[in-house]
# Entry
Amino acid sequence: MQPRPPHVSPLLRTAAAHAWRLLVVGAAVYAAFAVLGRFHEIGVGIFLGLVVTALLRPVADLVTRGGVPRGLAVALTLLGGIALVLGILALVGEAVAGERTTLIREFRDGLNRIEEWLERPPFRLSPDVLSDVESRTGAFLSSHRSTLLSTAVSGASRLVHVLTALALALFTAVFFIHSGHRHWSWFCDQLPGPARGRWETAGRAAWRTFTGYTHGIVLVAATNAVLVGVALYFLGVPLAVPLALLEFFAAFIPLIGSPVALAVAAVVALAAKGPVVAAIVIALIVVIGQIEGHLLHPLVMSWAVRLHPLVVAISVLAGATAAGVVGAVVAVPLVSVLWSVHRTLRPPPP
# Structure
């Protein structure tokens, strides 16, 4: 007579079944981020190519429907996008160059105001302490000059990697915009017959989610940049245009990007305009954070996939841990695409 197997409660069975599935999904996501971190130039190039495709393919389709050949429509769309980006960068460079003299003077006066502010209540710092900090800072820069120089040289080498990734992004975007659907159809045709339908369905769901997320996050970033730029301009904070551009790019990292960019703006306001204007900029951080968290991001997620804010936060932190800034940017769209594919391929409940 065989012994009876030990009784296991249904709740424990269900928890175990979900636990191993979560472990498998977590391992797959970690492996994806690890590969992205190892081959980050290729991953960044392809990701940027997909972003450019999501933004510019509707424009190319519109131009094609106007009677322009597809190849020429793609070329005109890409050249127009490049001209727009270069124009924005030229505007930022002109703004920085035009404010250079005023900026140096305001920063010098601002540092003096900060020292006077620290000497008054409630801080009551001694002028000797502030002078000692300045001397120590100068001594540190002098003693670590070689280290700073080597860091600058390594930064120049990283610029080559950035340009390589941008070239790959432009190269892939040309093919994706021109005939990306045909490339996906060819890939699906190489699969076994029973799997083709599911892969085609998953691909359509993934692209729909990625496109919706890209359009939405660009709208969020542009809205934040306009709000920040207008507010800093009326407050008289220097470098309003570059700081607005910094806010635009920082908004692509959900939850933490905008506060970091606005903190930089607060430091600039403190140095240039004093603590009162800096306090207003800090209040602006709170206001824009509320607008982004309670209005803009829910709208974006409704266009793409509804993700809980906790899932977004964990995704950003996991991506940053596994692949740095690149992982933080890619994490949320990757999780959104995976969840959309899961929902699409999941059999309907009985």
Notes: The mean pLDDT is 76. The longest helix spans residues 145-189.
